[in-house]
Amino acid sequence: MKPAIKAFVFDVYGTLFDVHSVTAACEKQFPGLGVQISQAWRKKQIEYLFLRQLMERYRPFDQVTREALRFTVKEHQENLSDLQEQQLIEEYHRLTPFNEVEDVLKALSGNQLIILSNGTSDMLASLIKRANFTSYFTSILSVDKIKQYKPVPASYNLVLEDVDAAPEEVLFMSSNGWDITGAKSFGFQTAWINRSGLPKEELGFTPDIIYSDLTGMLEWNN
Amino acid sequence: MKPAIKAFVFDVYGTLFDVHSVTAACEKQFPGLGVQISQAWRKKQIEYLFLRQLMERYRPFDQVTREALRFTVKEHQENLSDLQEQQLIEEYHRLTPFNEVEDVLKALSGNQLIILSNGTSDMLASLIKRANFTSYFTSILSVDKIKQYKPVPASYNLVLEDVDAAPEEVLFMSSNGWDITGAKSFGFQTAWINRSGLPKEELGFTPDIIYSDLTGMLEWNN
């Protein structure tokens, strides 16, 4: 039996939008290395978010994304001109939503649909506007408000400051295993959108539901 | 000119001891995958330390190491029996020191030589005893005392609780870029033992010295 859910909360990067839609732009700048650089960039970006949080040296997501790109290009023994950097960063502001996202948002509309992301408010507003998704969401929450990144508990608590719900009345969706673990540890119901077919994390918290993409959420239509 | 240093502080895993000395044991259990599994295991171990710290779900280093191994093996679509797991974990308690370590410890003896590690006290004592290094160290500090992993500031502060020194009178050595960044952010002098020839991290903190292995520390002999 499905629990009563008062708010459906979406992660953004990797969940609604494909972070690897920068692959073609990476390939254009670094022929033969597009896939590798895109994947290493994303991994480094996440590592840098974690490290800045741990070191108590918060900086906004766009700066961290840029710093991760710089490291990644150097790690691949390539050079990055200011112009190339600017072009790749702009590409990051134009990520493509996954194909099924709009159908799922339509099916769930009428519920409280919330975004909770490590991205800045500006980055989120721009991405969601470009995709014409603005009208579906009741709230767009950025951790930048408290300058603490997911998966720290305070970041997930932003949802509870926004809606009148108990943690277990929130269904949180993310493709990122670490994000799903953090959300479950905080007390949310979780649906892991396991786009890459990875094994479950071994951190003592199991997602309540696993779907291979967001299409699984269509069964929550009521 | 070298600053006056009151304490020389060593990281352990990857710095004094080779975490990839488990490669042969991994290869024996998973033929053809030894290098890949050893490397992925180490990366996952570090990610899990960070995640547990961020989620405020500290568990000791040996448990995290075991959980990271379980994920890594599943990620490589292999199975891990209880016996195999036990054998690999035991291997982790028998890591090999890098060749130059003993000469460096000898050259620096007479100074305060301290260990600061994410490992548990038991794991550290056993590793150091096996290598016959016990007599070189004035203190062996484990973050397990405060249950907060490096690179959080409180972990580096354990050194200042142990020695009478200002942060800039401590020289901290690690092969891990994230550890060197955290130590520099805290205020230590840092020597990055860049064993893998990686680029500098792009996190706004630059190591004071870079050596390709600990042999560079021989010039601190006085």
Automatic annotation (TrEMBL), chains A, B:
One of its GO terms (molecular function) is hydrolase activity, acting on acid halide bonds, in C-halide compounds. Transmembrane segments: none annotated. It holds the Pfam family Hydrolase. Keywords: Hydrolase. InterPro entries: 2-HAD, HAD-like_sf, HAD-SF_hydro_IA, HAD_sf, PGP-like_dom2, S-2-haloacid_dehalogenase. Belongs to the HAD-like hydrolase superfamily. S-2-haloalkanoic acid dehalogenase family. This is Haloacid dehalogenase type II. It comes from Jeotgalibacillus proteolyticus.
